[in-house]
Amino acid sequence: MTPEQIKGDAKNHMEKTIQHLEAELTKVRAGKISPAILDGISIDYYGSQMPINQAANVSIMDARTLSIQPWEKKMLEVIERAILAANIGITPHNDGTIVKLYQPPLTEERRKEFVKKAHAVAESTRVSVRNIRREAVDQIKKLGKENISEDQIKDAEADMQNITNKFIAQIDKHLEVKEREIMTV
């Protein structure tokens, strides 16, 4: 492998880490409800596990209400139980035809908790990006024992640091946007 290939691989891994961050931040509530709140919740659909959105129509009724209309009426209770078991902090309401999720307005204290959660997600992403950089630099140093000069190694290390700094800045930008979204009343 060349230093360029190592840097390219590291950059790809960092981009995937940013995509993961974006997915995780959508799960942090910000005052308005989102179908993403149901991600990761599966129901028992005739003996096999299936995501709720594959067994029902999930739609947003208003900023604080999500409706879940199952394809089959007998799945109402199954969906309701799955949401309760997932402990997402919202109690489902079954009206006989659809399940509704009402997200109450967030208190200042609750908003601060969500900001802390977003900060924790961002920090774990920063750690992942730094670990990717460290592994790439280690690989580049191993190449130094083969036929690469010290100057090339130093340049590659500096490039890796610059790439890392750009990704850390992206993480901070995502966090800033999410924090503003959460704290907006």
Describe this protein's structure.
There is one protein chain. This protein has 185 residues and is of the alpha+beta class. It has 2 domains: 3-27 and 107-183, Ribosome-recycling factor (Topoisomerase I, Chain A, domain 4, Orthogonal Bundle); 35-102, Gyrase A, domain 2 (2-Layer Sandwich). The chain is 58% helix and 15% strand. It is built from 4 helices and 6 strands. A 4-stranded antiparallel beta sheet has the order 3-4-6-5, covered by helices on one side. The longest helix is centred in the last third of the chain and has 37 residues, at 108-144.
Comma- or semicolon-separated keywords:
Topoisomerase I, Chain A, domain 4; Gyrase A, domain 2; four-stranded antiparallel β-sheet
What is the CATH third-level topology name of the largest domain? Topoisomerase I, Chain A, domain 4
- State the fourth-level CATH superfamily of the largest domain: Ribosome-recycling factor
State the end-to-end distance.
52 Å
Radius of gyration, in angstroms, nearest whole number: 22 Å
* Average pLDDT score: 87
How many domains? The number is: 2
Order of helices and strands: HEEEEHEEHH
The assigned CATH architecture of the largest domain is: Orthogonal Bundle
pLDDT < 50 runs, ≥5 residues: none
Report strand %: 15-25%
Major β-sheet strand ordering: 3-4-6-5
